[in-house]
Amino acid sequence: MYRYDEFDHDFVGQRVAQYRDQVERRLSGEITEDAFKPLRLMNGVYLQLHAYMLRVAIPYGTLNSTQMRRLARIARDYDKGYGHFTTRQNIQFNWPKLSDTPAILEELAEVEMHAIQTSGNCIRNVSADHFSGAAADEVADPRPYAEILRQWSSNHPEYSFLPRKFKIAVTGAERDRAAIQVHDIGLHLKRNEAGELGFAVYVGGGQGRTPMIARKIRDFLPEADLLSYTTAIMRVYNLNGRRDNKYKARIKILVHETGEAEFARQVEAEWDKLKASELKLPDADLRAIAAYFAPPELQDRAEGWAGLAARKKDDEGFASWVRQNVTPHKHPDYGVVTISLKPIGGVPGDATDVQMEAIADLAERYSHDEIRVSHEQNLVLPHVALADLEKVYHALLEQDLATANAGLITDIIACPGLDYCALANARSIPVAQEISNRFASAQRQQEIGALKIKISGCINACGHHHVGHIGLLGVEKKGAELYQITLGGSGDENTSIGQIVGRGFEPEKVTDAVETIVDTYLGLRESAEETFIDAYRRVGPEPFKEALYGKTSRAA
Amino acid sequence: MMKVLTANRLTDGIAVWLGANGRWLERIDHALIARHREAVDALEQAGQSAFHDNLIVDVAVIDVDEVDGEIYPIRLRERIRAKGPTFRTDLGKQAEFQQASAA
Ligand code: HEM
Ligand code: SF4
Question: Is A488 in the pocket of ligand 1 (CB under 6 A)?
């Protein structure tokens, strides 16, 4: 894992000291709210409906147990005993006092964490495949490049006043678990025919009110050119991005309005000037950063195989958890464990202080001290020996963390929505809870198979509804909540944006509507192997419209 | 027309309402209700001055009704602010003031 060097410690330390002073001056009335608001936002402090909210960065979603314990302590000492893991691989605390936030940031700095660049029109926390460095299907660990981007973009004057926020995601596998095509820049790390590492570069994806799929503007960018090329993209954006209209300011609009080919040409022209500059990454630097992410020394634990098979036979609960929540590791004697933060009827992404501490203990004992946060609002133990799975399972079970639903219909993403968020039109979490309860049966979930439901409480799309197989968007109509349903979205290597299926549903009807959609799918799929998204792509929206609205109102 | 003045307290962000006694209250029950234009203007002015005095932020005049003698905000958003998250009745005003309202 990356460790702060002296520079990082100084930088974060200075930032906390500055912030402490700013808060003191604000509380004493020396500075106005108008002057202070951008300062607190630069340090991750928002104001929500009930209280302030603190968003803490978890770079590329990687944490160690010390850091997780510290998050638990902050939840207990300064908040109300829980935190919310988000689709941006961050954690949010919902109830901190403004006057406590400097102390919280100090506590974070002690364990090499901060809240810098979690808000504002800068390059935000770089997100990455949550299975990085562990997944069997990975070409190389993309996190060193995320770290390079983090170092380069942190406090970079050229990127502190971009036209709008800027999100970068990286993946190192063909199977895209980081939704890179709906980010401002998506980087897919791969090898060329000569075996060298480089990136396919996607630009201009995004969600929000104008969802767009990123365009691939380069198929192979050598790794050494990462910063020069990204700088070229940022310069074209900084110069031409629309600052006149907040809703048209993201790079996706620029790429769309300029045209993919012309945009790529402008980037290449800019890059020509930068290619040979000091932005070219020396190999020694690349290897030095990569060394921080060197895989842990994993001993062979072949004894796990036999034991695992036997235990699975004895315990159906354990067997289905292994089937659903454990995925292949690079090392055949190990597995990657997804800890579901989606108990049936629970709040997606929430974890209590006690749960966080239990997970920290497990990571320390069984996963080489590593934990990941996934953009699907779950946690991951990346390096667990098959021989230890049963112990991990039982410990998770005790904490209500062993729900065997990763990737199934109850593994729902939901933004905070109107229960917390000042921008919301409708609630998200209670809708997720009701759907989860409706589909509680493990057997029924298995029968339905892979199905992603994603819910946002307004068009900002923090809950990724545009890329949900079934997406739910809360809107406000005549003072009441209404949910618009989209179908056919997907946020992986075959990214697609969901299409609105028809008029929206009232809160008390939306779960029935989801059930109708699921039943329609079950009725028309060619076999149990044909997943919801595959079936939808084959048949299109019509059968679902008909089931929801009847034949006559097809035009709805 | 019925309106009350609400905001979040600067120091801790907690939702507050302007009371009849001129103080910022942590619950909506005893908020001062403005029933005509001049009263609403007075609320707005009170909000402005509290904002300039750095007591509160995000000031807003909101529409309310009276139901069974209790103040009932028209928008769901404001009802949630007045109570707390709908799926966690152990949090927010609904939890903190349970005792008081049961009494
Ligand atoms: C304080 C609460 C929040 C506020 C004020 C907020 C604000 C916003 C806004 C204004 C946008 C639209 C940006 C645009 O289209 O230019 C947005 C997008 C987004 N937010 Fe949030 N958000 C909040 C909470 C969250 C949470 C909890 C998550 C993670 C669960 C999240 C993740 C995202 C994502 C993934 C997007 C869409 C990606 C994109 O930028 O296109 N946000 N948010
Ligand atoms: S999608 Fe809207 S309601 Fe949900 S967290 Fe984002 S801004 Fe808030």
Answer: no
